[in-house]
Amino acid sequence: METMQKERFKYIIRYLTICFIFLCSSFNTNGQDTIKYTKNSIFLDGSLLVYIGMYSINFERAIFLTDHFKMLGSVGVGEWYFTTLSKWHYGYSMPLCLNLLIGSGNNYFETDLGMRFTSFNKQSDKDISPLFPILNLGYRYQRLNGKGLIFRSFIGLSGIGIGVGKAF
Question: According to the model, what pLDDT value does residue 33 have?
């Protein structure tokens, strides 16, 4: 049974690698801009609610940028948990998201849509799907040119959370 979980985890790693390569190479984000925006960022997210929680470190890449709308793709690694009253489920996770930012100046409304690929630390968790949806709504602070500090706060299927990071 443990070898089946290892094979599933290897399959998920391959899938995320292919998605990440596709994400970074399929869009021309290195073209000439009138304003120099940063294209990459790295941030740490954490969230919890009574029965669910997670944390992850994420890499984010700009896909589409305008003055009032930004589309970003992110991939990360971390851990997650959820519990029922009688059982704990936890393990490693890899979130893959599409982040939409709407706003102007330094303040944005943020929507995260994606999937969390998970592995389990117990054999008894085989009946649970390894895929969990990600749907978060929140606030994001990021300077107009995109450089520097990133601060996020959100609520969604992952719980209530915050994130901090750096754009480069």
Answer: 47
Closest CA to 158 of 43, 70, 73, 81: 81
Please state, in angstroms and rounded to a whole number, the distance separating the CA atoms of residues 19 and 31: 22
For residue 85, count CB atoms less than 10 angstroms from its CB and return exposed for 0-12, middle for 13-18, buried for 19 or more.
exposed
What is the domain extent for residue 94?
2-167
For residue 65, give the nearest of 90, 102, 97, 113 by alpha carbon: 102
pLDDT in tens, 23-44: 555 555 455 444 556 789 999 9
Q: How many folded domains does the chain comprise?
A: 1
CATH number at residue 23: 2.40.160.20
